[in-house]
Amino acid sequence: MNATSTTATAQDHFEISTLISGIFRTLDERRFEEGWADAYYTDDLHVTTPLGVAEGAEALRQVEEAIGRYAATLHLASDILVHAEPGARTAEVSWNAHMTHVHHDATLRARGEGANPLFTVGGVYEGRFLRTDGGWRISRMTVRAVWTTGEPPVLPA
Description:
By secondary structure, the protein is an alpha+beta fold. Helices cover about 25% and strands about 45% of the residues.
């Protein structure tokens, strides 16, 4: 995206911002009932994170698994930029995120006395959103960590 891109209508910006807030709230409240992702993502979702690339149902499984590695999380989004021609079917979107992760007690016990209970990430999300009959949905998303504090969880081999 560049500064000369056309910005979306106020309504599109509102809908996309609300979608991002809804995703983060769903992650933090761990509301992963059957079909939870239908309100946020397209079926052919393509996700790139520091842990790798995944598509479709596998990408969603990885999201749920990653959140489950923590006792609690809090995701905050800011500076949401939406670039799309008014009435367009696609939008390029970026936003900043501050993501706080609280380790499980078992992780802290394994790391020993004085282990930091938090793993915090400041990052940037970029995505392609599609306007569907049900509203805006994310079809492509990239997450890039800008900084971290604390230790990440121990990942499975």
